[in-house]
Amino acid sequence: MFQLPPVYERSHTDFLDDENRYVLSQLLPIRELSFLEGLLARKIGMMPQWTITGERILCTLLEICQNHVVSVVSPEDWYRKSIVGKRKAFNREGPLWKVTVGAVNGDANIYTHLYRKQFAKARIPPKKHLGSFLVSEDALPTIGTNLDVRHFIVGQYVTASGKSIDWGFQGGMHRWGMRGQPTLKTTKSHRRIGSIGSVGDARVWPGKRMPGHMGYEWVTVSGLEVVRMNIDKQVIYVKGSVPGDIGNMLLLKDCLQPEKKLKVGPMPTWLPSISEAERDSETDEEATMNKLGANEIISHKLFNFTTPTLTFSDEDAKKAIGRDKTKAKIAKVKK
């Protein structure tokens, strides 16, 4: 008999049965003050896509790597135990819960007992990466829930946050785009920044652009459109670029811009039905590799290369049969 792993409820330690655990998600209206949890994604590269009008757009591929809900902290506990909670638990959006999501299963033997303890409560393996999100009460997930790439919808806008590329120590021309010194009549100072202050001030003012460490800063990019997703490989395509190098982890969440905020979506997240969960568990790895690319969701704006580019009607076929192909086409002279 197929049995799904039990998980805890969000408020106490009672287990949920399989019937209540995996239910078919419905697209429900999302309130203006509702905040959903996000996902942890790994940047795996960039590749172009083409729209139906022939426009070439550059997209970033993000892989959703074994995301599970690790813990759900109430605003009261978060306010009492954390300095960050004192600023974010009760803000202008109202009381918000702290939902921690883990990604990429790790080896339990290399972690301490205290670190493994929080994952043992949720009945999930230890995770290599953790990320926290602010979630409203109406969108709270269950602890131990497996988060799928279908948590997002093709066509919606998301926000990506992560560390930018670490360039190390760089000069003023690379770091700030300075012009440098003249090419001619200059000795060993072509890439120097020049003067850093006046004699009258006799000091270097704070904020002066000078050589130093470049990159590895927390950057957030908002308004990225989801144009395609591969369900088999758990890969999502977003239009544009995101911070970080290939292999870095990012935090993905719904865009909060008023004109780009999601109005209807899965609440609190997408969950498969019992039949889908059983079918996925019985599918072996070889069968999954054979159907690569078959289970994809593509935006209506993108051109699908599996569709025909030219179509012929019955009238075109009749005209082709009726014409004598042995004779050359002769233009008719107008009288």
Automatic annotation (TrEMBL):
InterPro entries: Ribosomal_uL3, Ribosomal_uL3_bac/org-type, Transl_B-barrel_sf. Keywords: Ribonucleoprotein, Ribosomal protein. SUPFAM superfamilies: Translation proteins. GO terms for molecular function: structural constituent of ribosome. It comes from the Eukaryota. The keyword Secreted does not apply. Signal peptide: none annotated. GO terms for cellular component: mitochondrial large ribosomal subunit. Pfam families: Ribosomal_L3 (PF00297). One of its GO terms (biological process) is translation. The keyword Heme does not apply. Belongs to the universal ribosomal protein uL3 family. This is Large ribosomal subunit protein uL3m. It comes from Angiostrongylus cantonensis (Rat lungworm).
